[in-house]
Specification:
two-stranded antiparallel ribbon; about 45% helix; about 325 residues; eight-stranded parallel beta barrel; alpha/beta
């Protein structure tokens, strides 16, 4: 994957891969309000300017996000120039395999660089994933078959669930390549992934993928910091890439300006920035993905997870 001088690149954990310090989120490019031509133009403009990390998920906009991204990569023949990531929601071996095959078809590729277990939001999720017939078994089989290069997981609810996922992974003799989590100027004060999970990931050599850096616009609405300051806060942490939701070329320009003008904060600068958000962040008002279920796709559509484990089925009323 070629690197361009204007966009800085960072190590992806201990994989040996180098990815652009900012990435393009897949959810926004498939929104009904975003014209397909604009979504494709965003991907082309991003990759032309040196961004090589592309995020997506099997469930984004009923598959539209993956379809558009696949078309964009095919149109400018850039598949081999990017580091392509998607996520699956299935918790069973069968459902995870089904979703992965759909993602491969939609993305128009025979392999995906990184596949992540999506929305690890409940303390029972790690054990379901690592069960004998759990999703991890399907992804390991796919990796062996050459369909996947690296594995990770995501979540946005509680940092302690991320820590538990890392623990269960270790108990099963496996180390994830990446972990994706909310990292923003509010998170620093409330149920903080930045304070609790990031240091553990760095210790274990797990690449940190930042998301919800603007909290889908909530940070801007808080009127505490400027968008570029918020993005640069995430860049100041030991993140491999900061995934930005981009629904226009103007927002793409903003993200690129943030990364190309970034300089590590001094302790005084960091303290001043966090002081601006301390009061607003106290109860999670501007991080609704932590305090409500409105961002929990698998809560509103539990069928995505697949069947309940056999052990639980045996306990259900007949």
């Amino acid at each position: 994957m070629a690197q361009k001088k204007d966009i800085p690149y960072r190590e992806l954990g201990t994989t040996g891969e180098k990815v652009s310090a900012i990435g393009i989120g897949g959810w926004h490019i498939g929104l009904p309000a975003v014209d397909e031509k604009i979504g494709i133009r965003i991907i082309h403009a991003a990759t032309d300017r040196g961004i090589n990390f592309l995020d997506n998920s099997w469930d984004y906009n009923d598959g539209t996000s993956e379809v558009r991204m696949g078309r964009a990569l095919r149109q400018n023949n850039s598949r081999k120039k990017v580091f392509l990531m998607t996520k699956i929601d299935g918790r069973t071996r069968k459902e995870a395999a089904r979703q992965l095959d759909q993602s491969l078809e939609r993305l128009n590729t025979d392999y995906i660089d990184l596949v992540q277990h999506h929305e690890v939001l409940r303390f029972e999720d790690p054990n379901r994933i690592f069960a004998k017939d759990g999703a991890q078994a399907a992804l390991l089989e796919a990796k062996k078959a050459g369909k996947i290069r690296y594995l990770g997981f995501t979540g946005h609810k509680d940092p302690h669930i991320h820590l538990y996922m890392l623990q269960v992974s270790k108990e099963n003799g496996y180390k994830f390549d990446t972990a994706q989590m909310p990292i923003n100027v509010m998170d620093a004060h409330f149920r903080s992934f930045s304070n609790l999970v990031v240091p553990e990931c760095v210790k274990q050599g797990v690449g940190v993928l930042a998301m919800k850096t603007l909290a889908n616009g909530s940070i801007v609405k808080s009127k505490t910091v400027r968008p570029i300051e918020a993005i640069q806060y995430a860049l100041n942490l030991p993140t491999s890439t900061v995934i930005c939701g981009v629904d226009s070329l103007k927002i793409l320009d903003q993200a690129i300006k943030a990364v190309t003008t970034f300089k590590p904060f001094t302790p005084k600068q960091l303290a001043a920035l966090l002081a601006k958000t301390a009061k607003a962040a106290a109860k999670g008002k501007f991080e609704p993905f932590k305090t409500s279920s409105i961002y929990d796709g698998t809560a509103s559509t539990p069928k995505w997870l697949g069947e309940e484990p056999e052990a639980l089925q045996a306990l259900m009323p007949q």
